Amino acid sequence: MAVAITFLFLCLLVRLTVLQLFSGGMLTERAADQWYRDLPLSAPRGRIYADGGELLAGNDKAYDVYVRPNAVTEKNRAAETLAEALGRTTEWVSEKLGERRSEVTLARRVDPDTADKIESAELSGIYCVASYKRSYPYGSMLSKVIGFTNIDGDGQNGIEGYYDKYLSGTDGRVLSAADMAGRETDGETRYIPAIAGCDLTLTVNAEIQSFAESAVMAAHAEWHAKTCSAIVMDVKTGGIAALASYPSYDLNDVPRDDIELLNLLSKNALITDVYEPGSTFKIITTAAAIENGAVNDSSRFYCGGSMTVDGQRIRCWRSAGHGSQNLADGVKNSCNCVFMSLALSLGTDRMYEAINDFGFGRKTGVDFFGESGGIVMKEENVKTVDLARIGFGQAIAVTPLQLITAVSAAVNGGTLYEPYFLGEVRSPDGETIYRREPKAVGNPISERTSARLRELLVGVVESGGGTKAQVDGIKVGGKTGTAQKYENGAIASGKYVSSFIGFAPADDPKYAVLFIVDEPSGYTYYGSLTAAPYAGRIFGRIADSEGWAREEEDERTYIEMPDVTDEDISDAVAALEKAGLNVETTGTGRVISTVPAAGETVACGDVVLVRGEDSS
What we know:
Elements: H1 2-22, H2 24-35, E1 36-41, E2 48-49, E3 55-67, H3 75-86, H4 90-97, E4 104-110, H5 112-120, E5 126-135, H6 143-146, H7 158-162, H8 164-167, E6 172-178, E7 184-192, E8 199-202, H9 206-223, E9 227-234, E10 240-246, H10 259-266, H11 269-272, H12 282-291, E11 301-303, E12 306-309, E13 312-315, E14 323-325, H13 327-333, H14 336-357, E15 375-376, H15 384-391, E16 396-397, H16 400-411, E17 416-417, E18 422-426, E19 432-435, E20 440-442, H17 447-463, E21 477-487, E22 490-504, E23 511-518, H18 527-530, H19 532-546, E24 558-560, H20 569-578, E25 582-586, E26 591-595, E27 601-603, E28 607-612
Parallel strand pairs: 2-8, 25-28
Antiparallel strand pairs: 1-6, 2-3, 3-4, 3-5, 6-7, 8-18, 9-10, 9-23, 11-14, 12-13, 15-16, 17-20, 18-19, 21-22, 22-23, 24-27, 26-28
Helix pairs in contact: 1-2, 3-4, 3-5, 9-19, 12-14, 12-17, 13-17, 14-15
């Protein structure tokens, strides 16, 4: 008996030790669950600001409505009052009030007026707990960058999702003593305060963003395009000053009931999607050729309208050809034959070295979800004809962000920066806990090459295909691009991506602008006509806003648009060029119309369109 009693005593001692040392915390929590009922105290989410301090994403006061069914004494009155306040049926509310749970959520994020109606009714067992609802003062502005949250305030995409760890606070609790049935007693009430999230400041300039937003909307209205987009980048840091795309959506009214539409409108295609850059890629080919000594100012090229490579005839955009040209002429004329020659002179090894050095074929590292690395053919698979096409922007696919990042490096003196949105993180008490510094990731070309490249690209805007991007008194450099789109591996008839990428002020660049018009309607699809004017508009407004010094402009010469209707298109082009105009063409045969129309006033050096009879 003594042994048995000792054994039982030891068992009790072991059990007591386990309960005290190992299970004590868990049992205390279970006891607290029985002794207390808790209501959440939502933490205010961190705010998002533009570079100049403008609030982009904030919080409005809201309330969550809860019910403790066992504590409701007037169920009929409660059901009627709540149904009217919440816009629900009395039957639905009555069902909630009858649930056998200690606590039921009736509504989330209701406005203060609704909460006042409920609280003024003084219904037992009904609680309105202060919460927050995300608000966006600028509505649709930056919608594809900022992103949105769910009903619980968790970031879903964009900056809201990518930096959720900073923006999310820590919720608090209100603990009220309760009996086993869940009814409150006269015991103590404990408060565990919420901790607010951190505030973010982006590199985005709110004023420049507004310029970009108005430009993409105006271009969309003019060209009835599928989408119109723009990126503005600080070429000396990689900071993204603006990113706009239209159509868009209001962040305060997210179309959550149509997932397909929401995914379409919220996807930031400038970062996630790829396209053939077309002639804008000629900037990279030119930079690589100059850097490697494959071309100089005395080099000559001949364009007869096409070039045969590996037995394949590759056409220049101008079927009549450009004749004999030097490098400056080739860049200004955007002659495909010149850039095929440059790529072939470089050879696959050096061309691919440049492609890699400028960051193509891999992600830029931007702080955003879903970035694509682009599509670059494996070097060992490249044939001579592929290399020739890459030289003028075919047989390679890039993201718009990759392109503007690379071009920024090409014109800023040769430093490739990692692009970024986040500039600074501040704690709830205002202390700066993180500040982003520009991150250089490569030097693809020298300062000397960059300076020469800027000169060539200024020529494109002054007297080449980019004249519609000109800004009075400000030197702008850049390049237009018009690329055919592909569907199911084949060229999609009549579908183009028209673009312009430029920089200013040209002597000491501060910003680069990429403007894209995706699938402009009709036959006016050249980047020189659709995209360049809007990029120039953005540069002009930035110059006014920031007070850039303007040079005295030589007065432009204006002429009356010659009437070349019914002439053979080649004769018409010759006549218009003789008059001092830059000409884009569509179709062949006899001329049926021009843009601008005959008799309208046009500036010498401007870009005009000639439409042939067989164009569609």
